[in-house]
User: Which sequence fits this backbone?
C-alpha cells in the first residue's frame, strides 16, 4: 500500500510528460491452427501477366524480336547519352 501511494504521484508526472507506464503482466493467447492445405493448391490454368520478370530472373529466354527492326531492342534498359557543346545529358530508355 505504501509503495503504490509513492508511485501514483510519479505516474501522474510521467503522464504529464507524455510517457506511459507499461504493464508487467503478460497474457498468453493461443492461436488457432489454420489449415494451410487450401493455400498450397496451385491453379491448373495460370497466366503470367509479367513475362519480363521471368526474363530478368534468367528463368525464361529474352525474346529477340524481329531481325529487321531498327534500332535493335536486345536490352532491358538502354542508357542514351546526348553530348552538346556545354553539357552531357543521359536518358534511361526501356
Assistant:
Amino acid at each position: 500500500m505504501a509503495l503504490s501511494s509513492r508511485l501514483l504521484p510519479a505516474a501522474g508526472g510521467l503522464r504529464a510528460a507524455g510517457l506511459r507506464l507499461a504493464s508487467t503482466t503478460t497474457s498468453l493467447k493461443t492461436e488457432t491452427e489454420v489449415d494451410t492445405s487450401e493455400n498450397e493448391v496451385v491453379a491448373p490454368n495460370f497466366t503470367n501477366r509479367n513475362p519480363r520478370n521471368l526474363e530478368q530472373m534468367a528463368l525464361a529466354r529474352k525474346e529477340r524480336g524481329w531481325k529487321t527492326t531498327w534500332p535493335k531492342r536486345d536490352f532491358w534498359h538502354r542508357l542514351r547519352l546526348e553530348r552538346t557543346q556545354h553539357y552531357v545529358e543521359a536518358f534511361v530508355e526501356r
Q: What stands out?
A: The longest strand covers residues 78-83. The helical segments are 2-16, 51-56. Residues 65-94 form one domain.
